[in-house]
Amino acid sequence: MSKLIQLRNKLFSEHHRNLVILSGETQWQNQFLTDLYKKHERVFWVTAQPCLPNDGPTSTIPEPFAEHEFECIESKRLSYYLGQEISGAIIDVRYGYSADTLGIVSGMIQSGGLLILLTPKKEDWHTLPNPENSRFLNTPLTFNDASNAFTQHLMQSWKDNDVVSIEQDKPISTPSTAITDSTKSYKQALPTQDQKNAIQAIHSVAFGHRKRPLVITADRGRGKSSALGIAAVDCLIEGKQHIAITASRLDQACSAFKHALHSIKALNSNQLDIEITINKPGLLEFTYQNSVKRIEFIAPDFLILNPTSADVLMVDEAAHLPTPLLTDILNRHHRLVFATTLHGYEGSGRGFELRFKKQLNRLTPDWKLCQLNQPIRWADNDPLEKAINHALLLDASLKEIADRDLFDTINPLDLCFQTVTSTDLLENRAMMESLFGLLVQAHYQTSPNDLQQLLNAPNIKILTASTRQGNQNHVVGAVLCIEEGKIHSNNSRAHGHLVPQLLTKHYAQTDFLMLSTWRIMRIAVHPAYQRNGIGQHLLQEVEKLATLSRIDYVSTSFGASEELLPFWIEQHYWPLHVGVKRDKASGSHNLVLAKPLTAMARQALSFIQTRFQEQFPHLLLESLPHLPANQVWQIINTFRFKKRNLGLNKALQLYQNGQRPYESISNKIWEWSLQSAHQIIQASPAEQAIWCDKILKKNSWQNVAHQHHLSGRKSVEQALKKMMTDWFPNTVNTTANTGNRIKKPTFGY
Questions:
Q1: pLDDT reading at 519 higher than 90
Q2: 661-to-73, 216, 697 alpha-carbon distances in Å
Q3: What is the pTM of this model?
Q4: Which of the pair, 201 or 581, is modelled with greater confidence?
Q5: Domains present along the chain, CATH in parentheses
Q6: Which uninterrupted H or E stretch holds 338?
Q7: Contact 499, 141 (CB under 8 A)
Q8: Is the model's pLDDT at 583 over the cut of 90?
């Protein structure tokens, strides 16, 4: 008991936090928690199980610990508490734990706090099954079948770190001491120098040139939200009237409003005449020099429909918003500040960096970047932060390239392709860091849980492409596959098996579930190696290994993008399904593609493709209004049409010459479009989009004109006829009674 109290006093004096591992029996562990926290302190008991009341035999917190006033938090709901501060957290690993849980909760703990892991004796912990492994296993596998390599990795990572490890039956000789009233949570004086720089940069957005948005990035605990609140008040005092703040949820912006209020009170103490008139969640209003000033929360979806006239719009936790929504906000507002966490424990911060910064470069190339490094809830060199970052590879990054010329001229055939096991990764941390850094860079949804899956899942296949440089091998490409299929058609409760079950639900016969597949869940190539055929060779190696393993087909499922879809189609993968809901992080529609390896799979996938081909045009009309035109044509271009479009040329000639209206020949154009994607795909992106929106999606003339900056129906028809003239030059009768040849329209792009 005295050991941890003494540790907390030391941490308070150093403004640090730490990780504590208590290895032993439950009753013994409970003794260490007695009197460790004061009643006013907030301590989370984090569990993978649903939280139940702490009174009675069904309590989530085990009986020995129920006497403590811990707040039970279900691990899957931890993300709702991001931005809040706690005095400590306790996780009993016997009930399951995940990498994401460790990452999220550690960022919430204040100075002087502890993250305590309750484990069995160390010799037993690495063999203890982890129920949280169930999330990435599929039927018939259970968490008892999973490896414990992730636990071994944690133990290795923390062995030579500043982690406090206490084991039962080992002597503890520490004098007893008590926590005094002076041991209050550490608060860095605000604003820090980093925050001052950010506030000045926000000031430049508010009072400088338009269309120069600011991006503020930071790890957790660096005070980016508080900087927004302080800067908002600063801008209002300096002359602005209205600051708007948006985020995916109001609670994510609470910190900004809290620090804005503190800033106003501090200014009042400096004899400024400020009167707060409204102070409620999402709205702070005050008067200064006979002028009303306002800081207001506006939901992001409302901003799209009703762009705000606020002087500055601040987007907090921007990485939690879909890239298309951020792009719309960027297009509709002139003075913007985006704040986000790039080392996000949910992985979403990577999406912001990988996807949205491309849009910033394209639309507002003069955007500025400001990074916060100094923590505010704890001091530098914090033991807990170092321990978690080291174990979860949150500091993993791409390996530097020593010889650029070598990498630019690499021959994919000179690379070494090898399958990698969790044992290989445990024995070679450099390989693990290189592989995970590659995945983090390439995929916006990569999170610490992916590391846990890499090490523990028995159904995962890892293939790497490496090059030798000096005495070291460098991982420059990787593919991760999951085994799916081979399940009985009567097993309606099968867990996992994403592709087989999705295709069976929508298009396939039930016996399709019996076929086996390797679903490619990740593919990544080092940026210095890209566009050299590495990805293509990785897929070829996967297909060889799958064939040797008698796998029926390879498949993949991902959020489609302009860059990704053509790559897979070029590798002869067939689009077989488009999800009607868009991914929350990327804003993209999910696509399923597959490639047969056996005759049986080819027959089954051809049947699925035919059904999908028949249904896809109707999906465009009913469920896929936002699917980009270039993706539409790429998908249709893989279809096999045998029907001839009789009378097409005659119908087009009559339409071109004004002898028949569009409404009388639209079916002919529609049929031809489905059969001629190979021709339409050669047109400009603008022409593809107009043709898709009107001919395939059947949008109204007004909507098409508005979407493509044309004046009305007449201009849209001129655009369509211009394309017809290009594709069917022989259909225009220049001597007809309808007058002169149609004039080419002027596009407003």
A1: yes
A2: 64, 54, 19
A3: 0.83
A4: 201
A5: 2-167 (3.40.50.11040), 193-372 (3.40.50.300), 404-611 (3.40.630.30), 648-731 (no CATH)
A6: strand 336-341
A7: no
A8: no
